[in-house]
Design a protein that fits this description.
Layout: E1 2-3, E2 6-8, E3 11-15, H1 16-25, E4 29-32, E5 39-44, E6 50-54, E7 65-67, E8 70-72, E9 79-81, E10 86-88, E11 97-98, E12 100-102, E13 106-110
Parallel strand pairs: 1-4
Antiparallel strand pairs: 2-3, 3-13, 4-5, 5-6, 6-11, 7-8, 8-9, 9-10, 12-13
This protein binds FE2/S2 (inorganic) cluster.
């Protein structure tokens, strides 16, 4: 699934109505950030929250994609857990994880506050 988003500086806004299916279907979705800006993957969590994980491989910058419980890079096979941790290299670092605010009408992803889980 791919979601349409409004990107304004370091903030990404998505109508909540687009995201509801993630929780019911328990599947992640790719959110494009615009031409040349990469993407993030939104993962539904058990408690009605969402996790936003950067989708640019930390090896050489290819776009990673959800595959089952993981994010997989098609270029050289790096595999990441849904929280961004490296499961299999050659990627040298985890993917960034961004805060997600789930509001009544919209979902907001804050791209300015990345953290990584090691
Ligand atoms: Fe992803 Fe090399 S660019 S594994």
């Amino acid at each position: 699934m791919r979601l349409a988003a409004v990107v304004d500086g370091g903030s990404v806004t998505i109508p909540r109505s687009q995201v509801e299916a993630l929780w019911t279907e328990r599947t992640p979705a790719v959110v494009g950030l615009g031409p040349g800006a990469g993407a993030v993957v939104l993962w539904p969590l058990e408690d009605g929250a969402l996790r936003a994980v950067g989708a640019t491989c930390t090896h050489l910058g290819c776009a990673v994609r959800p595959s089952g419980e993981f994010l997989v890079c098609p270029c050289h096979g790096s595999t990441f857990a849904s929280d961004g941790r490296v499961v299999r290299g050659p990627a040298p670092r985890p993917l960034p994880v961004y805060p997600v605010l789930v509001g009544d009408d919209v979902i907001e992803i804050d791209l300015t506050n990345a953290r990584t889980i090691r």
